[in-house]
Design brief:
Elements lengths: L6 E8 L11 E10 L2 E10 L5 E4 L18 H17 L32 H9 L1
Antiparallel strand pairs: 1-2, 2-3, 3-4
Organism: Rhodopseudomonas rhenobacensis
Protein name: SpoVG family protein
Length: 133
């Protein structure tokens, strides 16, 4: 049974200077969204160290109070948020949101032509004009 989620990306900012963190993950965009009536501000679209794509919930800066936090316990919700954020990222010209297969030794696997390219959205040109203007 597939769950339906109400997801709206309300803002997205691409990271222009990509830099891996201590664990090798690379934030490629920060975004805000409304999910099933809950507003999340400061989510992150991430390129993982294994060249996959992930989404992180907003970080709550208080390390002293472990009773507060945000996380995704529903994998279908996490996947839906990831897809929505990736679609907006791509429509704005983002080029780092594709999964890249890796061999066991960490090297890039042989590419299969045409499988790792984002199909342009029919709204992407209009959105690009709006954002640049």
């Amino acid at each position: 049974m597939t769950k339906e989620h109400s997801i709206s990306i309300t803002g997205l900012s691409q990271v222009r200077r990509l830099k891996p963190g201590a664990t090798g993950n690379i934030p490629i965009a920060y975004f805000d969204c409304t999910v099933n009536g809950i507003e999340l501000i400061g989510c992150v679209l991430v390129r993982t160290e294994r060249r996959g794509i992930a989404v992180w919930p907003p970080k709550i800066p208080s390390s002293e109070d472990i009773r507060r936090g945000v996380g995704f316990s529903d994998n279908s919700l996490r996947a839906a948020i990831q897809k929505a954020a990736r679609d907006v990222y791509r429509s704005m010209g983002g080029q780092h949101a594709e999964w890249e297969p890796r061999e066991d030794d960490g090297t890039a696997a042989a590419a299969v032509p045409g499988t790792n390219e984002a199909a342009p959205s029919e709204d992407s040109e209009g959105l690009r004009r709006f954002v640049v203007a």
